[in-house]
Queue: 2 jobs
Job 1
Amino acid sequence: MARLDLLFRARRVVTDAGEAARSIGVRDGTIVAVEPLEADLAAAEVVRLGDDEVLLPGLVDSHVHVNDPGRTEWEGFASATRAAAAGGVTTIVDMPLNSVPPTTDAAALRVKRATARGQAYVDVGFWGGAVPGNLRELRGLHDAGVFGFKSFLLHSGVPEFPPLEPAELADALRELRAFDALMIVHAEDPHVIDHAPPARGASYRDFLRSRPRGAENLAVAHVIELARRTGCRVHILHLSSSDALPMIRSARDDGVRITVETCPHYLTFSAEEIAEGATPFKCCPPIREAANRESLWRGLADGTIDCVVSDHSPCTPELKRLDTGDFGLAWGGIASLQLGLPAVWTEARRRGHPLTDVARWMAGRPAQVAGLSGKGRIAPGHQADLCVFAPDETFVADQDRLHHRNPVTPYHGRTLAGVVRASWLRGERVDIDGPPRGRLLNRGEA
Ligand SMILES: [Zn+2]
């Protein structure tokens, strides 16, 4: 074999075949060799992992709100992608809302790309948005390279990204079916929530009652039936209610093209343990009871849930209403991009899951759902996006030491297992103090 640029030698490498001692050869940013550990290979640079380290595929986080431009005080491309790299995430896909303009037409995508250019420490892709009145923009956005389209069925939290009415969602799915694009949906039913008691004050229990499981269950059922009717591919975002798992399973058995993600916070925390006024835990749909969390873990174990992605949705400390702890008024969104891998690993290993499962949930499947066929796996022909992970080292999460813009996270003070020692992007070690080297991706380009 011709000389390699880079060679990793590690006692523990996570591949599709499981965990094994391997040598991973890289040329021109691409994995070209997956060989036994002591294989006779030569390279310009050799990286030998420590006995306490595991080589994982770089994570693909397909659910990140960068909020830039327009709400840059909430987050930005440089801070978000630094946090990603520090957390072992080598690709993010940015959500179309909370930035201004929202990514609902090709011109807005150009604005977003111009903003991100020169600031990305990891690779960045973009979701488009489906909102009332932009049906005719969807094809142009698709052609301009978005990975798919996000829609809401209820108020999104920002006025410039309104929800679709049921008939509008059906029209959008029919349109997307014509060019086989993916619709990703925030599935909570507005009418259920309108009739639930409103969230007020510092009581988490009251907040939870304001966003009942029934709102998610009904919305997921609605999305399933529209996907069945139109044939469009759909993806359920941030599933919290485990009640919806059996219907997702049965729809898939029927041939409905549906995938689903959940998030580290639904797999880590429980409503019972959230203190009065602890608004860093507020997100929508909400973190539910411990029994629900365990059902979500079973959904991961049996393959019903495809992906675990962050839904990193930060804001300023003021908007989290940390002073009053009012769950009704606080922004709903959890900041966790840098901590997703240790958070999930901490809970996964407690339940007997190996790192191969975590890599599938957080790298392999999200890459597939987002159409990134060259990412998310350590395999020949894939990009050399890698994470050096020390799974047995523990640390206490400290919000002041995270790289995202505002020092707020519900993981603050929590002991987590697993330290990211390095991230590699297309065969180069990511240096978050150096110049950014991430690329802005078009759909299917990587
Ligand atoms: Zn989100």
Job 2
Amino acid sequence: MDFSLSEEHIMIRDAARDFAQTELLLGVIERDEKQHFPAELVKKMGDLGFLGIMVDPKYGGSGMDTISYVLIMEELSKIDASASVIVSVNNSLVCYGLEAFGTEAQKEKYLTKLATGEFVGAFCLSEPEAGSDATSQKTSAIDKGDYYLLNGTKNWITNGGRADVYIVIAQTDKHKGSHGINAFIVEKGMEGFHVGPKENKLGIRGSDTHTLQFNDVKVPKENRIGDDGAGFRFAMKTLSGGRIGIAAQALGIAAGAYELALKYSKERKAFGTEICNHQAIAFKLADMYTDIEAARHLVMKAAWDKDQGNNYDVSSAMAKLYASKVAMEHTVEAVQIHGGNGFVKDYHVERLMRDAKITQIYEGTSEIQKIVISRNIIKE
Ligand SMILES: Cc1cc2nc3c(=O)[nH]c(=O)nc-3n(C[C@H](O)[C@H](O)[C@H](O)COP(=O)(O)OP(=O)(O)OC[C@H]3O[C@@H](n4cnc5c(N)ncnc54)[C@H](O)[C@@H]3O)c2cc1C
């Protein structure tokens, strides 16, 4: 067993850290306030290879492993979780899905552009009546010979108003339940495809979340991903990897808040000494450090499982469940350590606290992670 990072991993982590602390930090408060999508930064992240981290270089990707992906996600999320969710969705839900399940023609046409950041992708599973219960898909895709006719509504779609390529999950045969579901590639601007207004959110406000409407959209047959009826398996497998990315995002949010709290506690004085010398504050820091390190081990283990070709359904669920809990609890503590300054935007911790909440909700709520974990341990 080896807990140390390779020289290459350290280089990748440091490059992401440098980018986050110079480029992402600039304007992060304003982007959050105004709900500005960081289009210029997305372009720069594409140039750095962060949008196709694990994609084979023959499709324009960086050809790195999942450990590199979580290292990058942690560093970006310490500063700007709105930017990191764009990276996570593009890598885990869109690029991975296309590379693992797409045809050569689909990879050539879409993956090569998504992996370089020329295109941004979105993943559309959730519906007004199908969130946790993803099998209750109402969006339908009727086989019309050389195309499918797509109708329905998807909500909460990250990158919804900014994407070029949308992977849309739809019911093709409602009598077959989860075996009657398929995944399709829908392009921006296809006739009958409408993007609804942007959501006004509590956190990750710089990310772009929309409801999407599909009214008789003709999706060419060659845009179906995988075998007929394989869409639900595609979605679940893709989300399993996505959870590693979101776990790393939660870890980064927690670690970012901890680093700010530690620094502040060494500078701020009360009762004649730096507040870190008060045991109540020192113990908070000890708890944060310990829990964050434990979360990091779970995140790394899930990433390692994926890289080794092991099943990562449970390790990714555990990593997301735990890291998101740590993120929520310890961003609250980071605000507390900052006192009144924690309550204002300039000190960043209030934003991290708001951003932390989403990591317990998307790509499977914490309750759903517990269902995944418990089902697996009971059946063993
Ligand atoms: C900012 C944001 C971005 C998102 N991005 C995307 C995206 O890009 N693509 C996409 O497809 N979706 C996206 N989502 C949707 C997200 O994945 C869903 O919100 C999430 O899966 C929960 O579904 P729901 O909101 O319908 O809640 P519900 O499923 O209605 O759940 C409500 C509550 O009930 C609990 N619950 C439900 N079923 C059970 C059960 N069996 N046992 C115990 N508790 C249960 C849940 O845990 C939750 O606490 C996003 C959501 C948000 C807020």
